[in-house]
Amino acid sequence: MATFGTDTKVLRETINTVGMPADLVARLEDMLAEIDRLRTDVTARIHVEQMLRYIDLTIHLPWMKRTQDNLDIGNAARILNSHHYGLDPVKDRILEYLSVLKLNKDRWENESANSIAGSAGTIATDRKLSHAILARRAPILCLVGLVGTGKTTLAKSIAEALGRRYVRIPFGGMSDALDLRGQSRVRPDAEIGLILKGLRYTGSKNPVMLLDEVDRIAEHARGDIMGVLVELLDPEQNAAFVDHYLDFPFDLSDVLFIATANNTTHIATAVLDRLEPIQMPSYTDEEKIRIAKDYVLPALMHESGLTKENLEIDDGIWPRLVRPLGYDSGIRSLERTLNSVCRRVARLIVEGKGNTFRITPENIREFVAAYDNMV
């Protein structure tokens, strides 16, 4: 973080190496010249600090940094299957989506190679056209489903499959469009919006950005926030997204946006037009048991420091763990129950009361408190 004593010579050298546009470079150089002029003026300290903060933010944005995409569909299928049981229709839609990404990427690369002898403007136009085609043929995914059905973890799996970095932007309860777009620097406490914060956090220009719970925006701010979403999701507009704090266009066309929602009722029509809703199905009891055995319990045991030798659950216990404790369509209740079991076993081991525990119908009350009053 640049501070009052920062050497402006170092900042000048950095500005010319991060690949930002020439107009912005000129703006920052003017600021550095003003900082040098005001360095000895104690009354201008706050103004200097604000300029240094702006410069520091700007040079740490990923103007040119990208990760290399892995568009191997077979690898993507393996990753999706390793993290999620079932959901075959959803996985098929995701793999189709990634296939379109690959074909459009190959096409754009071929067009760029064929245009390399042309003007830079022609290449830029081809690239913009490619993004427009991509948006039309493969709209932004919107995973729609009830709590606990795996929407967020699917988005993480897509990022892992692509080899991209991942960042989540929470929309639940968001009450101001400035949270996304940033605040003007005329305010002393101004800061960048969540979109550019996410890019700075990932250090990549092409992350997978999860727009989580876009249907749970505060009612009074819905119109303004949906307006920003339209700009974010439109490839003709997001190539020049302007954050109020940065006050300079930033190209978001390389970002892969994925949205989630519990339902689409409260999502503006203009936003829905740019999304492809994918319905996340509810899990049956049998699917919950399979997910708990093969995915949830091993992960929770690892997090709790337990091994396979420490905890075993009888097959006959699983239906009782799923119902009546897990009436939700997802696995949140079941996950909480298993987490409490792991914590209980960990405590018993630490207290020296044993090293191997087996949960049976006879002792289930000792490990699951909710069964204390059940037959």
Automatic annotation (TrEMBL):
Gene3D superfamilies: 1.10.8.60, P-loop containing nucleotide triphosphate hydrolases. Residues 137-285 form the AAA+ ATPase domain. One of its GO terms (biological process) is protein quality control for misfolded or incompletely synthesized proteins. It comes from the Bacteria. InterPro entries: AAA+_ATPase (IPR003593), ATPase_AAA_core (IPR003959), Lon_lid (IPR054594), Lon_Prtase (IPR027065), P-loop_NTPase (IPR027417). Signal peptide: none annotated. GO terms for molecular function: ATP binding; ATP hydrolysis activity; ATP-dependent peptidase activity; serine-type endopeptidase activity; single-stranded DNA binding. This is AAA+ ATPase domain-containing protein. The lineage of its organism: Bacteria, Candidatus Gottesmaniibacteriota.
